[in-house]
Structure prediction request, 234 residues.
Amino acid sequence: MKKAPCCEVNETHPEQIERVKNRLPDEDTLFALADLYKLFGDSTRLRILYVLLDTELCVCDIAELLGMTVSAISHQLRLLKQAALVKYRKSGKSVLYSLADSHVQTILAQGMEHITE
Amino acid sequence: MKKAPCCEVNETHPEQIERVKNRLPDEDTLFALADLYKLFGDSTRLRILYVLLDTELCVCDIAELLGMTVSAISHQLRLLKQAALVKYRKSGKSVLYSLADSHVQTILAQGMEHITE
DNA sequence: TGAACATTTGAACACTTGTTCAACTGTTAT
DNA sequence: ATAACAGTTGAACAAGTGTTCAAATGTTCA
Prediction:
């Protein structure tokens, strides 16, 4: 009892199918990647990343800049921090956030290129 | 009736705040960017993009490769197509999908770098 | 110590999203 | 024409997500 064929395309290119299968990252990596991109997929978090592009800011300043509550910003910063997209340091009463590494800039730049072309 | 001050940080760096504000992309651009990254934020769509990295495949082959229904894949391809991440051409009964431009590769590569370092 | 400030946290809510199922369109070949 | 195939579409459901609100933590300064 053979499985019903899909369409004829893969029948004629079995070696191609094999190659494609081998290129797929393993499941854990895929989920980690998706989780990373999800963080870029919200305009509030994008704005946070943009205002931190070359500045160090406290939660309260970010909230005021973006016209949102401190709580909302803090929740989002927690997610960005967990994914190592931002880092922070304490300074007196404040907590100053900044970007963690340069991949953020590159990913933002590539996305911008894509939508503006 | 002045607005209550945020914290003292922004009081001392007003020119910095101004610079940051000017760097923020406008609202429409931010939403477009977020929508783009949202597409990368799902493991099914990521897998589709990966199998199309250097191959042209029909809906049915993709579905079989990923162990999912044709309908589920078709729904996702529609989203990827709308965002110009994939393109397609008809060939007989089949519809062959492939990547639309090179930003996909770059974005995938940067994300992968970030999570594997 | 106590009051004021800066931030974090958890629960709750509305809203969005991915998959399934069934029905539908369009193409090929007999 | 008819049947079989390839793909698309819309509605519906469960699962996930962003913001709000209230309460809690921790720091500074008088």
Q: What stands out?
A: Chain A has a mean pLDDT of 91. The CA atoms of residues 7 and 24 of chain A lie 22 Å apart. The two ends of chain A are 51 Å apart (CA to CA). Residues 43-116 of chain A form a domain with the Arc Repressor Mutant, subunit A fold (CATH 1.10.10.10).
